[in-house]
Design a protein that fits this description.
Blueprint: E1 19-20, E2 38-39, E3 42-44, E4 51-53, H1 59-62, H2 75-93, E5 100-104, H3 113-116, E6 121-125, H4 129-137, E7 142-143, H5 149-159, E8 162-168, H6 177-187, E9 188-199, H7 201-207, E10 219-220, H8 223-230, E11 235-243, E12 249-256, H9 264-276, H10 281-307, E13 312-315, H11 319-328, E14 338-339, E15 357-358, H12 360-365, E16 370-373, H13 379-385, H14 387-391, E17 395-398, E18 404-406
Parallel strand pairs: 5-6, 5-8, 6-7, 8-9, 13-14, 13-16, 14-15, 16-17
Antiparallel strand pairs: 1-2, 3-4, 4-10, 9-12, 11-12, 17-18
Helix pairs in contact: 5-6
The structure holds ligand DWN.
Length: 407
Amino acid sequence: MTACRICQTPLEPFMTFGKMPIANGFLSKEEFAGEYFFELAPALCAKCKMVQIIEQPDPDRMFHDHYPFFTSSSHYMTLHFKKFAEQILQDNLSQSADPFVVELGCNDGVLLQNFANRGIRHLGIEPSANVAAAANKKGVRTVTDFFNEGLAKKIVAEDGQADAIMAANVMCHIPDLASVAQGVGRLLKNDGVFIFEDPYLGDIVEKTSYDQIYDEHVFLFCGLSVSNAFSPYGLQLIDVIPQVTHGGSMRYVLAPTGSRQAKPSVELLLERERQQGLDRPETFKKFRENCEKSRRDLLAVLNDLRQKGKRVVGYGATSKSTTVINYCGITPEHIEFISDTTPDKQGKFTPGGHIPVKPYADFKNTYPDYALLFAWNHQVEIMEKEGEFSASGGKWINFVPKVEISK
Ligand code: DWN
């Protein structure tokens, strides 16, 4: 039996999504035969309330020198990180004469560039060499590595302690949270803050956005589990700030225990989570039923359109789409191709389902009858630029929070 990664309590999965490939493992035809699969099964820890997947592939299978996700592919996300940086500058760095900030998993430098451009001392840590290179190219000082206590010691020796350590859509990817917490403890100044944001479990449960569950997302955080996971390492949750990004995220602010007063927002969130049942197995039984319904409904729509001979194309070859495609059994018979703006994904096939990924021009030049919105978390940005598709009679298929067709 597997034990909880936080408190070692034995875990029982509350559902399985079946065999899954690497979510970002876009591949060529020649690679189909050797494709890697693992069992994607999430569990709730009865003791510390951390929701986590039972099995996670080795990090090297997921994060490497051809990782195909670049945060700055979204204009809205770029703006979001600009505002995030401005908030930190105002709330946490204004008192420091020569501030130093560190970002864990800085991707292509989209957040840190806002500090680099102001001449603020900074360091990005990014395990995927290709995206780290993109960050360095932008003038964001980045090292290619995984963060842990050893690296924290090295940074302290070379640059000193940090005023703020940040991570966005990163902490939920790291199975050994203890080693990160110890590293943060060593690297952070006594009056510093550790701020991270990730997709929020409360939104995932409420919206049945089960596609947030895939190999990279080893944890699905909420206030209760974050507080339980970090307090043994001397880090106290002092504020929580909901975010609209990625279909509903939470920003967690932690500080060395006792160094600051926790804001009332923390207790309010924890109470709301208890009311929502994020600490109870029944909630996840219901979640499983909701996932099954979503799968039935989506397949019914796609089968119906196939029978009617309609052209259906996917929009956004997201990591999340790997869970949807493989859990629902969506095939190239249902979806002709998926349009994606990322050059590294184009010309390849989706993991497991082997649906072709094509450049955006293929969508734009010959609009399909229907577009299945896999990148639903970027809906506002996408709808803003796709008015012509709707005007031409094209329809959208959505599946979060429920399966429906819209103009
Ligand atoms: O946590 C993670 C998040 C932050 O990013 C990672 N594990 C990996 C990745 O997850 P994702 O792939 O599900 O993220 P996105 O941001 O939903 O991916 C959007 C995809 O859609 C990208 O491949 C780019 C593409 N796209 C597009 O083709 N046209 C995006 C937009 C906004 C567009 O207009």
